Amino acid sequence: MTLLPFIVLIGAMFLMTRSAKNKQRQAANMRDQMGPGTGVRTIGGMYATVKEVHEDAVLLEVAPGVHAFYAKNAVGAVLDDAEYNRIVHGIDPEDSDEAADAADDTPVVPDDASSLTEAEDETADAEAADEDKKTDLSKPSAAADAPKEDKRDDDADAK
């Protein structure tokens, strides 16, 4: 009866180490898939193209003509070509003639409701009212610059 908690603890530790080893194995397999021309995302979130793969390092092209060496462990994900092009270049693989034809049939929805209302007169009145309420940014007059009388403790107002 007293051994039961220890057995449960050892079993939990075994399961946790097993799942961690599986994750490490999957990450190593993913990094082995890298080759020249493959799109990757680093653990810092930078997208780049693999130029060369070395034993523990990889040469990435982070911008046209800009190369940087990274450790293989710094590669967070190896992306397939369609996903890399969608993220980096904005090329959607679904953009084809069929998708363009389907897009022509869909109704256009405005971003805001202002184009749905017919209150053009109200907006014109509101714009005219805004012009009337302009803030005066001119320099204040000399009367406003005059010093105010200082109240002292010995005045009659003090209690």
TrEMBL record:
Q: Name one Pfam family in it.
A: YajC
Q: Which InterPro entries does the record cross-reference, listed alphabetically?
A: Preprotein_translocase_YajC (IPR003849)
Output the superkingdom of the source species. Answer: Bacteria
Where does the record say this protein resides? Cell membrane
Q: Which GO terms describe its biological process?
A: protein transport
Renumbered to this chain, the Low complexity biased-composition regions fall at 105-117
Q: How does it sit in the membrane?
A: Single-pass membrane protein
What are the alphabetically sorted keywords of the record?
A: Cell membrane, Membrane, Protein transport, Translocation, Transmembrane, Transmembrane helix, Transport
Please state the protein's primary subcellular location.
Answer: membrane
Compositionally biased residues, Acidic residues: 93-104, 118-130
GO CC field: plasma membrane
Bias-annotated ranges (Basic and acidic residues):
146-159
Q: Where is this region: Disordered?
A: 89-159
Question: What start and end residues bound the annotated signal peptide?
Answer: none
| PANTHER family assigned to the protein according to its UniProt record, in alphabetical order | SEC TRANSLOCON ACCESSORY COMPLEX SUBUNIT YAJC
Which family does the UniProt entry place this protein in?
Answer: Belongs to the YajC family.
Q: Quote the protein name from its UniProt record.
A: Secreted protein
